[in-house]
Design goal:
It is built from 6 helices and 17 strands. By secondary structure, the chain is α+β, with helices and mostly antiparallel strands. The strands form 4 sheets. Strands 7, 8, 9, 10, 13, 14, 15, 16 and 17 form a 9-stranded mixed beta sheet that branches. A hairpin with a 2-residue loop joins strand 11 and strand 12.
Length: 233
């Protein structure tokens, strides 16, 4: 729910509303990395709010693993009225995705209302390995060199990926690809650069967390040890 920043800061025990207004005016408050202005609103559950460089939070925190099906987008609201992952998870409060999977991709997606953890795990300085099973059509032998090399996405080179062939047939095969970045549609753009057509893309691991055999569209709470692991990254 969108609320005035000063109200959120007061409810989180940071300071009074009047003192919060001064902090905002002085440029000491950021929302999702951007300097906030007096009158701005935010969602305490979905947005990362920083005061003097410290992420503020309040209330009970939820940590969810979802097996995202194809045909859902990883935003909480969509102007095109497409199905969103928030429709699949109901914990009594608003939780947001950590990172993203595009509309036609599926698999492991983490969700939480912990803004600080979201900020840390999605920051470019973190290189958390994410594993994908990718069904492709095309010539694998000539594509592997390109897939394992850096490619340019939005003017910047990617870091080399780990690529293994799980199964090969006459017109394509099954690949296991591990990347350590969160670049927009990175796996699909890597395959495009290698002249491969992606038929199916499923994320199966994030760091040490594994989707296992959870059915599509189902979710579960992370265990305490899994939450500690994420916070240690």
């Amino acid at each position: 729910m969108q609320e005035r920043l000063q109200k959120i800061m007061a409810s989180c025990g940071v300071c009074s509303r009047r003192a919060a207004e001064k902090l905002i005016i002085d440029g000491k408050v950021r929302v999702n990395g951007e300097v906030a202005y007096l009158g701005d609103k935010a969602d305490a559950d979905a947005d990362v709010i920083e005061v003097n460089g410290k992420v503020i939070s309040g209330g009970e925190r939820y940590y969810i693993m979802l097996n995202k099906p194809r045909g859902y987008i990883t935003t909480l609201d969509d102007e095109k009225d497409r199905k969103t992952v928030s429709e699949l998870v109901d914990v009594g409060t608003r939780v947001h995705p950590i990172g993203r999977l595009d509309y036609n991709s599926e698999g492991l997606l983490l969700m939480t209302n912990d803004g600080e953890l979201t900020y840390r795990l999605t920051h470019p300085s973190h290189e958390i390995p994410k594993g994908y099973i990718v069904t492709v059509r095309g010539h694998l032998e000539t594509a592997l060199t390109t897939l394992k090399s850096s490619i340019v996405i939005d003017g910047r080179e990617t870091k080399p990926a780990d690529v293994n062939v799980l199964r090969e047939n006459s017109d394509g095969g099954l690949l296991h690809i591990i990347i350590r970045e969160g670049r927009n549609r990175q796996i699909r753009r890597m395959c495009e650069a290698a002249d491969l057509k992606v038929l199916r893309l499923k994320r199966v691991t994030i760091g040490d967390l594994t989707l296992d055999k959870m059915p599509a569209g189902r979710w579960r709470h992370l265990t305490e040890s899994e939450v500690r692991y994420l916070k240690s990254l």
